[in-house]
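Structure ticket #2291
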Amino acid sequence: MPGIGLKQWFQVSALYAGTVIGAGFASGQEIMQFFIIYGEKGLWGVTLSTILFGLLGLLIMLYTTAAGCNSYAELLPVMMGKKLARAVDWLSLAMLPGGLVVMLAGSGALLNEQFGLPTGAGTLAVAVITILVIMGGLEGVLLTNMILVPLKILTIAFVCLMAIINCGGWPELAQQGQQINHGRNWVWSSVLYVSYNMVVPLAVLSSLGRSVEQKPGILGGVTGGIILGGTAGLVTLAGLLFYPGITSYQIPLLCIAGDLGEIWKHILGLLIWLAILTTAIADAHGFASRVAPKGGTLYRLAGTGVVLLAIPLAGVGFTRLVQVLYPLFGYAGLAVIAGLLTTMFRLKITRGKE
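Resolution: structure written out below.
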């Protein structure tokens, strides 16, 4: 039915984009480190990342709907063989709770710095909402992303577009000649960016194999990648207008939003918090769907349990957790990308479900 297909396409697109647009993306820090510092070449990097996000989203949804997967544990052996799949599976089982801990810590830090609330209150707020969403099962996760993800994207796009207009339009890219590339080039930086952002989307999207039809699922994977690239492109363009001053900000988008007025700084703070929330939900759902692929009571218990265990660990501190855990996301992501691309050449995936 056309209505069902349209709804599933939107659900997959929102879920894919929502898992990637976390605190780092919404703050502008990720975009600055991976794209803005390369000047004009950073825009080529965004283009490359958009192509990769779209292609990988397509492949994940193609494989998972063809195989009728309920979790990434069912998809990984198809992609990379049993031995490597087992290693990536165990790494993901550790990383998803790790990512959840980072998001809880990030919520505490943000609400403390931006609004003066106790750190523990910020941590508990995301924990409680995440548990409530998990209790609603897969439908709860999809509904939450359908509401919050468009809100995040529209706000980021509006802030960046208004900043670009206020500054006179397209930046003078020729002035961005000095690159702070830290030994990397823009191509490798783009690949790394996609790499460390693919573990959670794989875990989340691979749980949709039996609930989403193949055609809207594939379209959603492609559209989600395009949305990610388009939003990153707007942030990059706006960031180039404020470069190099933007490099002194821990939250670069605050520099951009400040050009629109003080109220936008508070709106942006709320936006980053929503980004943290949707990523926390994705981490908890990815873990719960791995432990309980069939859903039900075990899924809810696993999701609730991992959130409760993450709360005390969040006290380690946001910055320290990012330094330790995020490199692991990158290494696992490279294995995921390699598996997806090589499977494209190794297998014939039948259209539709058997």
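Closing remark: Residues 8-171+186-345 form a domain with the Hydantoin permease fold (CATH 1.10.4160.10).
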